[in-house]
TrEMBL record:
This is beta-N-acetylhexosaminidase. It comes from the Bacteria. GO terms for molecular function: beta-N-acetylhexosaminidase activity. Its EC number is 3.2.1.52. The keyword Magnesium does not apply. It catalyses: Hydrolysis of terminal non-reducing N-acetyl-D-hexosamine residues in N-acetyl-beta-D-hexosaminides.
Length: 405
């Protein structure tokens, strides 16, 4: 249906469909976007609008990043203080919020009507400062690192303080208490309640940037956490660092957020998911991260991974970064982290038009007629009237010949 709609044109004689025979199927089954609703919160109506505009590009998975240092965004009945005490703020001191279970079910159902599967993420064992605001017995005191201190000073942001909401966006300072059995009771309860209201097969347990957690403790935690997800009837997803652990649950799927040329141990960590019978989703940061700036002077976004213009977002190959069988790559996911996005309009300017580039990378064969930059930029320009009509606040990148009709 989306392919048919993409052929609709407003010509000299009015609206019409191009005369064509359609033979169309996706290269990758897994074509995803991620929305971080934790650093800044977006309500149900805003998430629905995001679903509308991304599902129209044939994305079929929505990854919701529901917890982080800055807040907790999903109702958990067995741990009510998470939303009572740890949901009211966001980055930069902006208002927070959370989804009730009914809100979440409404989002899941709305996405499903548009053939989009929701994947919830609870980020563990790091990115967990907000948990400590609600339940301080579950987390360690913040562990400062040189990068956190320097970046907080440069941005004029506060350092994390145990038991107080964190308003900055530095990373690596938080960890749950690995050797407390109560921690795993918490994980199981959260996973169980998420699983009960998530029809899709996946629960994402995070695992990134746990800089304050000793490696042996990290390995112990993620091995137990991935096992808990399987025991609760779901398939665990995790960021690629989780692949460092020897005994992660078999079949766990990894999400690679390293660069097109892997750094350090990233490639080996990602490959371990495949060795354990799992697979990989490619979110290669220097081409696929939607929160990176288009140019050095763009008012939104960050630059730590790269500056990513539309052409860079289009001209990458998901199977090229890692030495794993091509069949082990399930597809791609383009994440939008929300440190700098204080409104849905901010989100849309970073996501569009680059999401269209990732949609084509995920859908079309690597080598096919029209699968090249010049063809793509001309076709992309034709989306402007549609996005304007639907109120999508896209960035009119200069390299694209935007159409008026």
């Amino acid at each position: 249906m989306q392919t048919l709609l993409q052929l609709l044109r407003d010509g000299d004689e009015g609206w019409a469909l191009l005369h064509a025979e359609i033979t169309d199927a996706p290269r990758f089954e897994r074509r995803g976007v991620m929305l971080d609703v934790t650093r800044h919160f977006f309500d149900v109506a805003e998430v629905k609008k995001f679903i509308d505009s991304t599902s129209a590009l044939k994305f079929n998975h929505l990854h919701l990043h529901l917890s982080d240092d800055q807040g907790w965004r999903i109702q958990i009945d067995s741990w009510p203080k998470l939303t009572e005490l740890a949901s009211s703020t966001a980055s930069l001191g902006d208002p927070g919020g959370f989804y009730t279970k009914d809100d979440y079910r409404e989002i899941v159902a709305y996405a499903a009507e548009r053939h989009m599967l929701v994947i919830p993420e609870i980020d563990l064992p790091g990115h967990t400062h907000a948990i400590g605001v609600a339940y301080p017995e579950l987390v360690e005191d913040p562990v400062m690192n040189d990068s956190l201190i320097a970046e907080s000073a440069r941005l004029g942001q506060p350092l994390p303080v145990a038991g107080e909401p964190y308003l900055g966006w530095g990373v690596g300072h938080s960890s749950v208490r690995i050797h407390e059995e109560r921690t795993y009771e918490f994980v199981r309860d959260v996973v169980r309640e998420l699983a009960e209201m998530t029809p899709g097969p996946f629960i994402h347990i995070g695992g990134d940037e746990s800089l304050g957690t000793p490696q042996a403790d990290f390995d112990h935690f993620v091995e137990r956490a991935t096992a808990i997800v399987f025991e609760e009837g779901k398939i665990p997803l995790a960021w690629h660092e989780v692949g460092a652990a020897k005994d992660i649950a078999e079949g766990t799927i990894g999400q690679y957020w390293g660069k097109t040329t892997p750094e350090g141990s990233h490639a080996a960590e990602a490959a371990h998911f495949v060795e354990r019978g799992g697979a990989l989703i490619m979110s290669t940061a220097d081409v696929a991260y939607l929160d990176m700036k288009y140019s050095a002077d763009f008012p939104l976004g960050l630059t730590w991974a790269a500056i990513i213009d539309v052409r860079t977002a289009y001209e990458w190959e998901p199977t090229a970064a890692l030495d794993v069988p091509e069949a082990a790559i399930l597809g791609i996911e383009a994440p939008l982290w929300s440190e700098t996005t204080r409104s849905l309009s901010d989100v849309e300017r970073l996501v569009f038009p680059r999401a269209a580039a990732h949609a084509e990378v995920a859908w079309s064969p690597q080598r096919a007629s029209g699968r090249d930059w010049e063809s793509f930029r001309a076709r992309l320009g034709g989306l402007a009237p549609l996005w304007k009509a639907e109120g999508v606040d896209f960035h009119p990148a200069a390299e694209i010949p935007w159409s008026e009709r």
